[in-house]
Amino acid sequence: MSLSVRHASPSDADEMSTILRVGFSRDPVFRWVYGSEEQYDRLAPAFFDLMVRRAFEFGDTYVIEGKGALIGQLSTAGPCDETALYDELRQIGAERADPLVALVAALDKNHPTQREHWYAMFQAILPEYRSEGLGYPLSRFAIAEQDERNLPIYAETSTPRNLGFWESQGWKQTGNFDLAEGVRITQIWREPGASAQ
Asked: Most C-beta atoms within 10 A of its C-beta, which of 17, 69, 194, 196?
């Protein structure tokens, strides 16, 4: 099977947002943020639309076969003022604005600031295609570009079963923090050129 990973174009934005929304619909973090399936279906599209739009403006966007999407951006050393982002989150969060802002604030608070790196923000494969192994070529495409830039990569995961996927590509666990009771986020880091553990 030939797989085509490419940089996304703005015409892919709606599809990418849908892929991310569907892909994260069972994620424990977003279950906590939105509280119910009804609120997720109603409110999460605006969040992922915002994240995709910001990735096109400030970062990198990748798609594979219309079945998976990955967005990320360069993260410089030192603190970053995200006031405008928080304002937008409060607007789109509606009745779930408080936990949505709390999520992003927790991610910001625990984000490494010592070194410049690439932040792999969200990656998802549509559920019906997860058995096809599409996550590997999608992530490897982005990893190869960051290796060329000699940039380490940082990401988070809230799904323990995904750790093996990341570790097989040279990532290491660097820490974790609890967003809420029973909702733990694991931090992972990959040095340029790192191989599987």
From this structure: 69
